Amino acid sequence: MTAADYRPPRWLRSPHVQSVLGSSPLRRRHGERSLAACGAVTTEHLIDAGDGVRLQGLHSLPAQATAPSRGMVLLLHGWEGSVDSSYMRMTATHLLQAGFEVFRLNFRDHGGTHHLNEGLFHSNRIDEVVHAACEVAGRFPNRPLAVAGYSLGGNFALRLALRAPAAGLSLAHVAAVCPVLDPARTMDAMEQGLPLYLWYFERKWRGSLARKRELFPQLHAFDDQVLNLRMRPLTRWMVERHTDFGTLDNYFDGYSIADARLLALQTPASILMAEDDPVIPIEGFRALQLPASARLEVSPWGGHCGFLESHRLDGFAERWIAARMLDAIG
């Protein structure tokens, strides 16, 4: 099963149809029903992510498991997504049906977890995700561990794999769907592309920041003028006041995995990308340098993390992740 096997019907080949339907309420309901139908046993966990940071996640076991699981797959969602995003639930469903356990991790300030930590989420908070992954591995030992992510979650998954050896974390495989490679180019693409995507992420982020201000008014005493900033100036405001990066360029460079930065990967890796992704430019993937143990698959279609296959809104990417994990762990 490779990207060459993904051939959506003609009416689904628009990248905008793929991207919009992929995050639509219809698909969220489909994901919820799919996961419920597989009868998984799911428990909530608060994870120590180091330095007093707490992250929340959901651990799921296959229904009526009569044998040890094949392994554990840690799933990471995209920016302003959550453990309950449709692609997270549907990926979990396919993995559970294949005999894996699944741990879906919420990033800081995602999935209604704003109250757990005072500081704001930003995309360079990789240390806490590495620490959380080690904590998950410790809570569920003696089984292979792999990681998969979508969009910004794909970026985090690949950075987690880069840092895994130094953290003493053994990963069997890492899979990423439409990962953010070069954040600066992604920002440019959103500003120059269909305004819908910029509006969507701005609206979601403003809501998240407003919730943070409501919970911690003394620490986050910004006014509505800040919340009304557009994406680039709002990101610059966040970087200058809530990080040590100083400038937007330094911040973007901090979580870039473009060009040769993934050459140091020691974990076998699989990357699925759509050539028509309207959010993440395909050009960066053409210049991407990877080790021999990593494979990049590019489909002509799919939009941004869509990869929908039919009117049922089933997703190729979710099946692809399960197939890659079966190939890696068996």
Automatic annotation (TrEMBL):
Xref: Gene3D superfamilies: alpha/beta hydrolase
SUPFAM superfamilies (UniProt xref): alpha/beta-Hydrolases
Domain AB hydrolase-1: 73-309
Active site per the UniProt annotation: S151 (charge relay system), D277 (charge relay system), H304 (charge relay system)
Record GO terms (molecular function): monoacylglycerol lipase activity; short-chain carboxylesterase activity
Classification via Pfam families: Abhydrolase_1
Keywords: Hydrolase
InterPro entries, sorted: AB_hydrolase_1, AB_hydrolase_4_sf, AB_hydrolase_fold, ABHD4
Similarity section: Belongs to the AB hydrolase superfamily. AB hydrolase 4 family.
Name the UniProt record assigns to this protein: Alpha/beta fold hydrolase
Organism in which the protein naturally occurs: Marilutibacter maris
